[in-house]
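## retry 2 of 3
previous attempt timed out at serialization; input unchanged, resubmitting
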Amino acid sequence: MKNILVTGSSGFIGGHLVRKLKAQGHYVVGVDIVLPKYDWASKFYNIDLRNQKDCESIFIENEQFDEIFNLACIMGGLGYIGLTEHSHDIMIGSTQIVANVLDCAVKYNSKKYFQSSSACVYNMNKQNETNSAALREVEDFLPAQPDLMYGWQKICGELMAKSAQEQYGLDIRIARFHNIFGIEGIWDGGKEKYPAAITRKVIQANDGDTITVWGDGKAVRSFLYIDECLEGIERLMNSGITEPINIGSDESISVTDLAKMVIEISGKELCFHYDLSKPEGVRGRNSDNKMIQDKLGWKPNRPLREGMEKLYFWLNNQINK
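## retry succeeded, writing output
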């Protein structure tokens, strides 16, 4: 049994990770600014990790952590991180969290540290076309031109983790997540991501209605179901890889085609309206999975449709309760 810290344990990925680690028999300490909605950690701290003293109190009160999964950050879907009114909180708040958790990991001799990053670190100039090449880790993010302030913050987080490794020998792992989705995530209120947002719109629509798609619908993305994300995290933590690695699907799809997939799952007849005033992000983003295949002997391979069906039926139950 390991003693494991999960920050952001009430979040989407964090909550699923807590459940998996507990099922494996580990003692899991969870930390979040909001209370868990689904699974509780073995011990839970409802604190703000931007406060250095509160962060350090966790390390003082617990034995040395075998593993730390730092998933805490200020984020949301494009309707949140795409608005400049949140840029300061995203950059400063999330960087404070990384700094505080990393400082404590070093000071209290934590054995292994995982930093969550994002595909948003990659250069936007390489994502200008719907058929843009898949994003490869070996190209890195320099010269830096990341997506949104959120991307700049994730670059900072990676570099901070790397500095702790270089100066203090902290055993780090860094994952660049590509659009993780699934059940038990946010699906309304403005912070939801596209798979949940479009699924909610389809469920709430009646036959013959028109649903709104942001942008022109041609932007391309890849989406990874949460179960495969967790498998990728586990495999990465059990490996010796300390450089950043993509955790994402390489099955790309346009925004419109994903909406059509959800409509087909629903069995409804719906029309589209494209809102060009809304943010749509880069034109084309997909995960290159050569490194994860070469380094871990594994890569995500489950069909997108399989995950979208799970999301649809779960969310349909939530909305119709």
